[in-house]
Amino acid sequence: MIFRTTSFRTTPARTTRPALRKVRSTAALRPLRHRLDPAAVEEIPLRTSDGVLLGLTRVGTGHSDRPAVLVLHGHTASADMFLLPETRNLVDVLLDEGYEPWLLDWRGSCRLPYNETGRRYTYDDVALYDIPEAVCRIRQRIGDRPLFVIAHCIGSLSLSLSLTAGLVPGLAGVVSQGVFLTPKLAGRTSLRISVMGELLKSRIDYIPVDFRKVGLWSKYTPLFALASRGASCPDPTCQILHNSAWGSGASLFVHENLSEATHERLAELLGPAPLWILPHLRRIELARSVVRWHDTDHRYRALPPNALDAAGRIDTPVLLLAGSENGLWQDSQKLCHEVLAHRQPQLDVRYTEIPGYGHLDTFLGRGAALDVYGHILDFLGERR
Ligand SMILES: [Zn+2]
């Protein structure tokens, strides 16, 4: 048995255990890694109305008439995933095709400290504060120019909640990668999320990925040991991501699709996963829809209880993208396309599957510019 249960004595002295985390109210953004002209990269301070400092980056082009494209990373990743210096990345492609890229580091970014320290949050907060307020800030700058959004994984799932709440109206188009309105995890992943949430919630706050920081023997050793079973790659960080997706048992990418340089940087590109997010993720997964976490807190009443039920409010064309080998969200995007075609036939939604790709490699893959981005550019190009 990997996880031993501990029996806590019920003496009064033991019932008040110390807090697991130090709460920080300030955030310093880790610098972006890129090969752009530093003068073109504008970091824009963005503090949400609930007081959280985020990262918003505009890549300037010297042109004031270009359509803008906001890109949203997945949970524990960051804007760095669209700027890989070692490959032809999404920002390169957008610049070459005449767009103005904007990158948001929402509160789940590993460039920010909130997954390890700081106030806890749910995806409701991302949908209610981070995404709409970033869109608002961008619109203040771009005026009437078209604004597209390209969103990956939880960035896309949270966007679906913002969209169906009517909080980001009038987008020119949305590209969703991996998952959108109908999240569906593999059976064993789903089970492990429940088990991990229950067994570990009183012991640890987050699952780390960088074995070098964690050390050989720690409370995390069993998780790394579990992830290493049957792994063909000797790198423990790769094992916990490729083999086990932070211990969930899912696979985040097709291994051979990553360049050696990207493989070396995995611990920088994907940060620790907080365990306190699991109850919301679990509720979403059980509902097979993006559902609001806060049912009674009036601050969240703008969000629909169930985003799929409110899909009729989507007012923009949507391209659903997924790798054929997505080891985390399976065929969620295909399912989403089928469900929307049936329930909301008036919506402009299309589905494109990328053969031979998993989940993260659709953006981190060395061949993504050839195999993936063309589909995105075709979609944007028809609507700019
Ligand atoms: Zn590896």
From TrEMBL:
Query: Which InterPro entries does its entry note?
Result: AB_hydrolase_1, AB_hydrolase_fold, Cholesterol_Oxidase
Repressor among the record's keywords? no
Provide the cofactor list for this protein: FAD
Write down the superkingdom of origin: Bacteria
Q: Where is the AB hydrolase-1 domain?
A: 67-157
Which GO MF terms are attached to this record?
Answer: oxidoreductase activity
Q: Any idea which UniProt keywords this protein has?
A: FAD, Flavoprotein, Oxidoreductase
Task: Describe the family membership recorded for this protein in Swiss-Prot or TrEMBL.
Answer: Belongs to the GMC oxidoreductase family.
Instruction: Extract the PANTHER family matched here.
Output: CHOLESTEROL OXIDASE (PTHR47470), FAD-DEPENDENT OXIDOREDUCTASE 2 FAD BINDING DOMAIN-CONTAINING PROTEIN (PTHR47470:SF1)
Spell out the protein name for this chain: AB hydrolase-1 domain-containing protein
